[in-house]
Write a structure and sequence with these properties.
Elements (H helix, E strand, L loop, with lengths): L1 H17 L2 E7 L16 H13 L1 E7 L2 H9 L5 E6 L8 E2 L2 E2 L2 E2 L6 E10 L5 E2 L4 E2 L5 E2 L5 H10 L3 E2 L5 H9 L5 E5 H7 L9 E3 L5 E10 H6 L1 H15 L2 H18 L2
Parallel strand pairs: 1-2, 10-11
Antiparallel strand pairs: 3-14, 4-14, 5-6, 7-12, 7-13, 7-14, 8-9
Helix pairs in contact: 2-8, 6-9
């Protein structure tokens, strides 16, 4: 009898530990192509997360909200994760990261992204990789761009965060609300080929940031499911570093670049 009871307990303990853990992902749904490409979570990084979750037996659910609201939802346990999170002091109180030593583990990042400085054609604002020159106004930064805010704070450069998308940031730049804007490389370079920005806005050659981004998990969820989250991050790492995924990512990026030139 005791052996039977012990077997039942062991069965349910094993079943419970292997049961799929639902992970609620809040995503912005389209600000930075191709990382978060669609509102239904079908972007290239979204797919990376889905594949990794399937590998470790976790279920993922995507919902859409602006980045700032997603962070609030994660902070208040209304959501469990955000797909693309920089490792920066402004966010470490909200998110758990895959760690190695004293910092985030680059081998388990979801994507590397670069941010560039944009200016109106014919103006003299410049960026040499260390400091701005010719800057007379606050720099336009897409809302909730925590990593950029960190960097600008170190440089003691004032910020204008009234733009909520690359388009609105460029619109404000054209309206002479600012002398310079920061924006993600691919999504914003694509805008330069389109009206009304073509031949009116240009990208400076030196990146402002070149950083890795991670699948950020709420600290509450991480503490409750530490082993599964670590396995999830491990799966993300080995999938992202596979030749098949790298080829798929390059194909998506190349396709977007071609579309931007049409």
């Amino acid at each position: 009898m005791r052996r039977s009871l012990a077997a039942v307990i062991l069965f349910f303990a094993t079943w419970s530990s292997n049961a799929a853990v639902p992970l609620r992902i809040c995503t912005d749904g389209g600000i930075r192509l191709p990382t978060i490409m669609t509102s239904d979570g079908q972007g290239i990084v979204d797919q990376l997360i889905r594949d990794a979750a399937r590998e470790v037996g976790m279920e993922v659910e995507f919902r859409v909200a602006p980045t700032a609201r997603c962070r609030e939802e994660v902070n208040h346990d209304l959501a469990d994760a955000f797909p693309v999170v920089p490792y920066t002091r402004l966010l470490t109180a909200i998110f758990a990261y895959p760690m190695r030593g004293q910092g985030a583990d680059p081998a388990r990042a979801v994507v590397r992204e670069r941010v560039f400085v944009f200016r109106r054609v014919g103006t003299s604002v410049d960026w040499n990789g260390r400091r701005f020159s010719g800057l007379q106004t606050p720099v336009l930064v897409p809302a909730a761009a925590a990593l950029l805010l960190d960097h600008l704070a170190v440089l003691q450069v004032p910020v204008d965060m009234s733009g909520h998308s690359p388009q609105s940031v460029f619109d404000k730049l054209l309206a002479k609300r600012a002398d310079a804007a920061l924006c993600w490389e691919l999504a914003c370079a694509m805008l330069l080929a389109k009206l009304p920005y073509a031949d009116k806005v240009e990208m400076l050659p030196t990146p402002f940031t070149d950083e890795l981004y991670y699948f950020g998990i709420s600290r509450r969820f991480y503490e409750a499911h530490t082993d599964q989250v670590e396995r999830l991050w491990d799966a993300i790492g080995h999938i992202a570093q596979s030749q098949a995924y790298k080829q798929k990512y390059r194909s998506v990026v190349d396709d977007l670049k071609k579309k931007s030139k049409r």
